[in-house]
């Protein structure tokens, strides 16, 4: 166990006598906490898991990683102080980021770290009483919170001390405590609502979607917040002068921090009071109304957590989009099998979702920004839509497709791919082609086609030749990448951290080629006839590449020993 | 002699589903009970009730005269439980994990330290004592799990599919261990689907289906009563009622509709 965990454990175990009076067994509390902190040290947290590769070395000091990550986040939030707007607006943005990030990290960790279902078999079968177990879990949550909140708030604390004054910095610490209490309320509410509505397994899936949304929100805020703040600076917008700021929780915390920083508006005073009162009321609600249910979940609620026997209700198979599209694009044989397999697994594999879905969010944010600018006819900003540049977003969507196609090869459960090797599959290429078509439909066409329609509505028929060439060219790039970057069966390979030199250069060359193809489009974007001709050529080339994928035999496909 | 485990009119519901129906059982010290039944029969639920994990049942459940609902901690001290699912904190080493378990059981260091070493050695894991278990095979994890169940020398040992994933030598070792522990007066509650093992190690067989006890006798008694020579056949005759033969026929008929690939 590292020095930080040791210190926190020692601090947590200081009121030994008090624990005894509570009816807990201090020796068991110590042992459970010690083990839990060791586990924390050796397990990647939710955020680290998103970026983790399967072959990564086992974690040894994940706690330090979590704290460092938290501190870096705290440092990033300081970015809002560099942009032109006055104090209260900056602090409001700062605490918004703090609150959102803290809540999402905690929600994710609650299911994976803090409410470990294995405890049911390992700890609850031993002579450990309810109070001991509950106390150990609560202390674990408290230590976990400290490890997140302390480093995250440190940069803001130092900045407040240096920039303003040290009483403000001291108040900042109090604000962070109040904000943490408020986030506990939010998490309790989310957790309880989720527990009533969905099963724990489904809740974990919801959490993963929430993480994806969060990633996109963070990206969108990086795109939009600086501009918004510049605009606010220019228009002398002051949050403290508007009543509706009181509806924003982070405004209360910002207002409270600002109390010792000179002139404050009446709304800021009201906000500061709300910043003290509402978290306390919130935590009172938690203790009075929510804690009972939550604690039952935390303690010996084996019976409530225990899954009832499997339902005997007959579940009828529904025909979904996958069936419809496979009929159109891969109607039979191994190709159809590959299509349905990749479509279903790409929707159900958590790892795949976490890696690919955020890129769709980036595209939507970017597109929303451009459409807004085009409609508002604000020429001062980058990326308004123009007929000659309409295809640029199609190439951006290709990023999602390329990510999906690359990610398609990998899976945590790659050993299940024995099924491919045990079947009389003569040409695995057909299977791979089916999978490619599924991902192209799901992660490209379903984005690109509505985009093309939107672009034609906004820009008129003049955009059609560019869109057409962009569409085929992007598909050609993705197909070429699939064909030549090293053919692999879908979801059948472990994630590799070391890529061979030849593979690396081949991938580099392919990306270069993709760049050239995009660049070529840019050069001819003003010549309609040439665009139509090139569209036809790209379509023909696409057909050839797809045909070549379909005919690949086992000797062209990378195989794993399963 | 007083029974060490006594179940009287035990009932348990999961929502609307009645999973245990009026179970009555008296188990005596030193007995090896083979607790068998088809999937979803209520075996694991019975075990969880006995271990004090489920307390929302009706009826009377006593372990060594202690009502489980009233004092689950005292019962947990008497019982060693090896669950079916190999739930372990697998980023710990066997040594760390077993030390954790020993301390939760309230054992002293001078007792558990040599015992862990000896037990790991007996299972051939002395070389893996300080290795994280996330790289272990299913069989190696099962061995650690088995040790964690018997480490505190409990009077009652509940084993839920304990041989799953073990190699042939370890199976022999566990079977041998069961009979030696029974000779020392320990009570073994053995849940399994492996009929040949149950047949050999148990001196009393309890068959449960749909939450009800269908048979409770020695293997010899069951053989005589039902006129079958193997436990597998006895099991099928009591639980499947000809269903297995029907299902096999149904499977074969599936080919007849279209004999092509």
Automatic annotation (TrEMBL), chain A:
Keywords: Membrane, Transmembrane, Transmembrane helix. The chain crosses the membrane at residues 59-85, 91-117, 168-191, 203-222, 242-260, 272-291, 352-372, 392-410, 443-464, 470-492, 504-523, 529-546. This is ABC-2 type transport system permease protein. It comes from the Bacteria. Coiled coil: none annotated. The keyword Membrane applies. The keyword Membrane applies.
UniProtKB/TrEMBL annotation, chain B:
Gene3D superfamilies: P-loop containing nucleotide triphosphate hydrolases. Keywords: ATP-binding, Nucleotide-binding, Transport. The keyword Nucleotide-binding applies. InterPro entries: AAA+_ATPase (IPR003593), ABC_transporter-like_ATP-bd (IPR003439), ABC_transporter-like_CS (IPR017871), ABC_Transporter_VariousFunc (IPR051782), P-loop_NTPase (IPR027417). Coiled coil: none annotated. One of its GO terms (molecular function) is ATP hydrolysis activity. The keyword ATP-binding applies. Residues 5-235 form the ABC transporter domain. SUPFAM superfamilies: P-loop containing nucleoside triphosphate hydrolases. This is ABC-2 type transport system ATP-binding protein. The lineage of its organism: Bacteria, Pseudomonadati, Bacteroidota, Chitinophagia, Chitinophagales.
